[in-house]
Amino acid sequence: MPATPFDSAILSGLFPTDETARLFSDTAEIRAMMLVEGALAQAQAAQGVIPDTAAAAIHRASLECQIDPAALAEETAQNGVSTPALVAAFRDAMQAPEHAQYLHWGATSQDIQDSALMLRLRQALALQEARLKAVLGALADLVERDGDAVLAARTYGQHATPTTFGAVVASWGWPLIAALDALPGLRQRALCVSLAGAADNASALGPDPAALRADMAHRLGLADPGHGWHSDRTPILEIAHWLTRTALAAGKMGEDLTLATQSGIGELSLGGSGASSTMPQKQNPVGAVAMVALARHVQGLNGTLQGAAIHRQQRDGAAWFTEWLTLPQLVLGAAAALTHARTLTRGLAADPEAMSATLEATGGLILAEALSFALAERMPRPEAQARAKALCREARAAHRPLAEIARAAYPDLPATLFDPARQTGTAPAEAQAFLSAARDRAG
């Protein structure tokens, strides 16, 4: 297998990331770093730190010059960071040494690379937001079409009480709504510029480093954190945590879809499924299990990233390198998980007949809780629970419906007690609340 499936000619279709993968190419990183250098030069010229003519030349070159990533490899391996090689190549490409000497004035490598990363993460968040809205729109369609279908809720893999398919869909969708609602605040806090100089104290950034940082942030469309954050990785951690939340929500959905489509249940059908190499009858829930695998992968990467957040002193090479090894994979994993979720929810369909068959197959035992509370109206609750359990044992032993056994013992029990559709509690209301919220967010 390849080192990473996301750029594999064989596996990339199984772990699709849409446009997100392009944000983590060498070319995308170089272009983002050049844009940061151009914005820095403009902000410095506005403060009189470097000449206006030099800033104009640097900014123009940041948009026009092309730099070969391979040309940076040898020097990057020696320096442990790509910025020095980029700055040297950038200066050569400008072919104007009188202006190029002011490139990267007073900044440090991490300022440029962290700011450039934020430009790419901003785009990654926008793409994930679009996927979230698409999934919510598809889930809302499911609630409208099949939300009233009654099925057996399951806890610990066992039949619990009746619920509705709409409530199940809502349980998938609420975490996505929460993530979507959290996104504006995340952008405001975490998508921030970095400009603090060699030792995080802006010692070579001119007479007013704070104003310079704010101007540079404005030009890049990023937030001004108000301080340096070379060793404070909170912005990275917050973005990674948010992406992990979206992947975990997709993973939960994938687990439920895998179980609901398994042989012997078949309460849901997926729009497309995978074939076996040897068993012609198989239709494997490939997309669903991919969502689960991706969620686990993202969760593990996030744990590694959290551990790497402990930076020694003013900057820590090992911790920073760990970010490079984990963060891109985390972003791509979350993107792929929601890409699968978007595809599956568009083709997902409920099978109300299969759901009803499951309810009937329980012989009414799924209504035992409702029976115990009905009995509690005429006897103490502990006694009612014990009596309901005894009636369930009798129904199992006699292979007769619980309703028949219970009404033989208590003829005045209402027939509606044994109608699963009348025992779904707040499920219909929760489904409708989710439908309204999802429509509102999906647009």
TrEMBL record:
Keywords in alphabetical order: Isomerase
Cell division in keyword set: no
Organism, scientific name: Pseudoponticoccus marisrubri
Protein name (record): 3-carboxy-cis,cis-muconate cycloisomerase
InterPro entries, A to Z: AdenyloSucc_lyase_C, Fumarate_lyase_fam, Fumarate_lyase_N, L-Aspartase-like
Domain Adenylosuccinate lyase C-terminal span(s) in chain numbering: 363-435
Family statement drawn from the similarity comment of this UniProt entry: Belongs to the class-II fumarase/aspartase family.
GO molecular function: isomerase activity
SMART domains noted in UniProt: ADSL_C
Pfam families to which the protein is assigned, alphabetical: Lyase_1
Isomerase in keyword set: yes
